[in-house]
Amino acid sequence: FVLGGHEHEGLSRVTEAPWILKSPSDARRAFVLTFTPGPKGAADLQDLPLGSDTAEAADVRRIADDWRARMLANKGIDPELWSKVLWEDVPVAIEGEETALRRRETTLANLFADGVGLAVPGEHVVLLNTGSLRLGRDLPEGTDITAGHLIETDLFQAPVVKVPGVTRAELQAIATAAFKEFPGSGRFPGASSNLAIAWTGSEAHVTIDPDGDTVTLLTTEFMCRHPKGGLENPPLRAACDARKDQIEAVGTLRDL
């Protein structure tokens, strides 16, 4: 059999060739493999999901705490900001796992998109890249969302820009590219609540509130100007390039 390491999703599959076994990277699912060698060797597999009632190992917590301390120091972020509450008692569960963000829209990414939309005056739609909760996991309904959660996604200091005059056809192309698997980070972006996307096969159909021929788009500078961001969404990069003298910086997510 083939035994793999870091994967975003767990896999146990037998094909015509070997048995392929890969453990997922979220560290909340354990594969216990008992292998008996020899001419008549056998293997037994237990797939054990680790629920919220499974205690976190102390050594895992030490690794996480060390990562957080180094990351805050490297970015020059005051550790006191970690526990600052941004949204109290959020009424929906927040999906923060890497596996979810690589498959579909998530409440985590959309929450941050709506947060940006509410913080910037005027009428606009928001589409921004996001990351997973590296120290957390899915958060239950009623959780307070803190600056620490935003910092975990690596969005805390992300510059946000305003792209004016984006046409409906451009926005449809941007949405189609954004919500398909793309080269780059592979995570689905967040969309504001006034940007609804329905699908026919692999084509997105966009509904915008308020309706209009053009919209102002808020996105991250990464998506608009960074080479890797251009790989993730070529239509968005093209829209930014066509308006490069009109793009306005509105601040970082930390400022907003």
Write the layout of secondary structure elements.
Layout: E1 2-7, E2 11-14, E3 19-24, E4 29-36, E5 42-49, H1 58-75, E6 85-87, H2 98-101, H3 107-119, E7 125-128, E8 145-146, H4 147-152, E9 159-167, H5 168-178, E10 190-191, E11 195-200, E12 203-208, E13 214-220, H6 221-225, H7 227-232, H8 234-242, E14 248-252
Parallel strand pairs: 1-3, 7-13
Antiparallel strand pairs: 2-3, 4-5, 6-8, 7-10, 9-13, 9-14, 11-12
Helix pairs in contact: 5-8
In short:
The chain has eight helices and 14 strands. The chain is α+β, with helices and mostly antiparallel strands and 256 residues long.
Description:
A hairpin with a 2-residue loop joins β11 and β12. The radius of gyration is 21 Å and the shape is globular. 28% of the residues lie in helices and 30% in strands. With 256 residues, the chain is α+β, with helices and mostly antiparallel strands. The protein has a five-stranded mixed beta sheet with strand order 10-7-13-9-14. Strands 1-3-2 form a three-stranded mixed beta sheet, with no helix packed on it.
Structural class: alpha+beta
Terminal Cα span: 51 Å
| Major sheet | 5 strands, mixed
Tell me what portion of residues adopts beta-strand conformation.
25-35%
User: Strands across the major sheet, in which order?
Assistant: 10-7-13-9-14
Uncertain segments of ≥5 residues (pLDDT<50)?
none
What is the element string, with H for helices and E for strands?
EEEEEHEHHEEHEHEEEEHHHE
This entry's quaternary arrangement is single chain
Proportion of helical residues: 25-40%
Cα-atom radius of gyration: 21 Å
In DSSP terms (H or I, runs of 4 or more residues), the helix count works out at 8
| Shape designation | globular
Mean pLDDT reading: 81
- Please count the beta strands (DSSP E, at least 2 residues each): 14
